[in-house]
Fold these 2 entries.
Entry 1:
Amino acid sequence: MADGKRVTIVGGGPVGALNACYLSKKGYIVDLYESRSDIRKTENAVGRSINLALSLRGIEALKEVGLDEKVKALGIPMRARMIHLVNGKCYPVPYGKSGQHLLSVDRMKLNRDVLSAASEFPNVDLHFNHKFVSCDLATAKSTFVKTSPQLPDKEEVTITSDAIFGCDGAHSAVRRQLQKRRFDYSQQYIPHGYKELTIPPTEDGKDMSFTCTLFMAFSIFDTLTTEQKVLDFFREVFPSAVDLIGEELLKTDFFLLPPLPMVTVKASPYHYKDKVVLFGDAAHACVPFYGQGLNAGLEDVLVFHEILEKHNYAFDVAFSAFSEQRSKDGHAVADLSHQNYIEMRSSVTSSWFLFRKKVDSLLSFLCPSVFTPKYEMVAFTRTPYHKVIEKSELQYKYVNYGLAALCVLMFIGGSRLAWKAHKGELHMSELPHLESLLAIKNRFQNLV
């Protein structure tokens, strides 16, 4: 086990707090440092607003420390994506098979629960209002500055431990230290931003209020400079939302805060020797359109500790193995999230997209051991992300080959019957087959 080793965790978000629970269970002495004040004591704590869509990966990671049932009890099941057309029509696109669903969980509530769980371990010390400044990679010595408003003079704190775990988000200060060494790093911002809006409760109180998030190109945000422009835009593009939010609240909420950007981060390796390792967004931030950012971060903790046990708690071997294994998945989840960003931006209303969803569902039902839809692999299994891409691309290729072959066969069959009809050789019993084949052929042509 740990043999009394001391570790430093930078970042008190859900990933850092969960890692503190795992490490303390294995006997490590844990010091967790967070630049913010204790969010459990702050009613209006500042943080990311996008609700977490908790999937199997995150649930399995929480299960190891007994938090899964508590979190699931507070979550709201999400079984499908609802598409709202401008003409008022709606239709659902299920996330998975019958019985499968994601959980909508308040990110801040989850963070508070995991921090509280970590604080219950006697070998965990939580240090709030401590901003990470730098570290010595060779010795795992970290320097923090106390950020409490009660301290006008910035007081530095230095701590030396056996290892540093960087769980400090997409703009990670720990990662910047690794970038001074041989380290691959890239970041990419998409042209869309997001803004939080509120749908208030109904007058009878049966339907509670909830937060919704508007994703939109910055170029469009920039044009909405007055309340009237906002109302006109929503009436044209999101007419049903105006009635649900209310004109007055919409005008107020829209201008409360500027739209926020979304970034993809890819890095490699995730570690430096046996001294520093990155988890979560610090290693692989991704856009939120697959709902996998925090799920992937929570799974990082689970994967690392599986590797740590496998290598008999030797940090040097475990850090290297984790970095090699997980960096492939970190790159993959970033790519998957970007693919889903493009899909949600433009594809969800296309006939071909909806047709392919139905084909995928049918194949999954008929051949569950052979065919698994990509979304299902991501959300409802622990298939490594890079394996999801490999398998889904292979499946997509074979399905397209099959559909093309089906089109050719129908074309040949329809042409043969049409030729027989032209020659006057078509038997009356074959007429319905001709009409059906021609109808299906035309449908495929329209879809393609």
Entry 2:
Amino acid sequence: MAFRKFLPLFDRVLVERLAAETVTKGGIMLPEKSQGKVLQATVVAVGPGSVNQKGNILPMSVKVGEQVLLPEYGGTKISLEDKDYFLFRDGDILGKYVD
């Protein structure tokens, strides 16, 4: 897998956005412009955490495999082996889904 070759630094999180809905519940195909921006993603890699002024590492708030809610704008797009991923800071992630 591509993300095994890439490790984010400090407090950065590598995520893969979920696919946009292309069909409504009633079976109607949605054109690309009508599809909303997908704000949910799966965490595929995390950095070790940020360092505070005393030199201690602050732990990350998300783990690999968790579903998270992203802000509408932001993040850095990265292409690894023909697949698009996004890099966010840990503090930019709005929340995570729990079962």
